[in-house]
Specification:
Blueprint lengths: L4 H22 L20 H13 L2 H23 L5 H21 L6 H15 L3 H29 L3 H22 L4 H10 L1 H4 L1 H5 L1 H16 L7 H22 L13 H24 L4 H11 L1 H16 L12 H25 L4 H16 L1
């Protein structure tokens, strides 16, 4: 099965876009996402808060959702490739997911406490098993989990928004956020590298809570990726292009207003829904938008750059987190101490350029990234043994 360039371009954008939101975690910025006395209009308080809110609007959950959808699409393509040659795939794929989980665990312990690889590995195992049960099971699981997830997120968002209408609740939440911020600042800005590792170990379940609770959400997005592949959305045909234009129209047409709630006095009702409900709609819009640009500028330098990053996505994901750690944490350059929005944006752009340079240079000599090679060769070892 021939490699689909568009998927590589989308995957490269998702990696750089995910860094666009994770970079704020590394920077240890505090106070920008707080609760304003002006209701939800916290972005009006200063230029810094406006820039941060604009980044949230463009990045928060959108590129992570895109990456998750693409992971599901890749899973389905891998399944189809093995079926074409009449080769059993489930056992080998599950083994590769176990290896990815171990990779994610090491990444969590030694690099980044918000690792997504562990959650992806567990999700991929569940989805792979579901795909073996037939299309009706896939459809029902997707709809049931999707509806339940949407209802839960809406209830939580509504309750959280109503709670924050009370001044006492705002003060309590501000104190909680401030206390958590002070703890992480002490560890990651003034502590040593091994202090951070010890912190991740001692707070393992607390730090992994989101990764565990979003697994049903991830399953839904994986299955959306599967559906996009099966429905021909990534086919390089006129029919496929028309389908992707529908994603652009509906994804942006619905996603922008919903995610734009962050700029309104109703933003307090959007704290949870923004990331876990509305963002994936805009992720689909991003697929349509990038597809449109890809069809018009497929030979441009930027398209080639994103494609290269997408081909070594796993390596770039780990590399970008290592670089961000070195730049912002106390054991590195410690730029997190400056609490400056422009430093954060400059760091994001700088790391993105380094990722592009790395991918161009590496792929000039090798066919896949270093972590991709280790992961796939280890997974293929089981295939050869069996």
């Amino acid at each position: 099965m021939k490699r689909i360039r568009l998927l590589d371009v989308l995957r490269g954008l998702a990696i750089i876009g995910t860094l666009g939101i994770n970079i704020w975690i590394f920077s240890l910025m505090d106070g920008l996402g707080g609760f304003s006395e002006n209701g939800g209009l916290v972005y009006l308080e200063s230029m810094d808060t406006f820039i941060y809110t604009f980044f949230i609007f463009l990045f928060n959950g959108k590129f992570l959702g895109l990456l998750t959808i693409l992971f599901g699409a890749g899973l389905e393509l891998k399944r189809q490739k093995n079926l074409e040659v009449d080769r059993k795939w489930l056992g080998v794929y599950v083994w590769s997911c176990v290896l990815l989980f171990i990779d994610g665990l090491l990444h969590f312990l030694f690099v980044f406490e918000a690792d997504i690889l562990m959650s992806y590995a567990l999700t991929a195992i569940v989805v792979a098993v579901i795909l073996e049960k037939g299309s009706n099971i896939v459809k029902w699981v997707g709809w049931i989990l999707g509806i339940l997830h949407g209802l839960v997120v809406l209830v939580i968002s509504l309750g959280f928004g109503l709670l924050l209408r009370f001044e006492e609740a705002q003060e309590m939440m501000t104190r909680v956020v401030q206390r958590m911020s002070n703890e992480t600042t002490d560890i990651f800005l003034y502590g040593g590298y091994w202090d951070q590792v010890a912190y991740r170990i001692s707070h393992f379940f607390e730090l992994r809570m989101e990764a565990i609770t979003i697994i049903p959400f991830n399953i839904c997005l994986f299955l959306i990726g599967v559906w996009l592949v099966r429905s021909g959305y990534f086919a390089q045909t006129d029919h496929g292009r028309k389908k992707r234009m529908k994603l652009l129209k509906w994804g942006m047409g619905i996603g922008i207003p919903l995610n734009g709630i962050i700029f309104t006095p109703l933003a307090e009702f959007n704290v949870v829904a923004d990331r876990y409900l509305f963002a994936p709609i805009m992720s689909l819009g991003y697929i349509g938008l990038v597809s449109y640009l890809f069809d018009k500028y497929s030979t441009s330098l930027m398209i080639h750059a994103l494609e290269k990053v997408g081909r070594v996505a796993l390596s770039c994901y780990i590399l970008q987190n290592v670089l961000a750690s070195v730049i912002f944490y106390g054991w590195g350059f410690g730029l997190g101490a400056y609490n400056n929005v422009w430093i954060v944006i400059a760091a994001w752009l700088f790391i993105s350029v380094l990722l592009i340079l790395f991918s161009f240079i590496w792929l000039r000599f090798y066919r896949q990234g270093p972590f991709e090679y280790i992961w796939r060769s280890t997974a293929n070892f089981k295939l050869k043994k069996s």
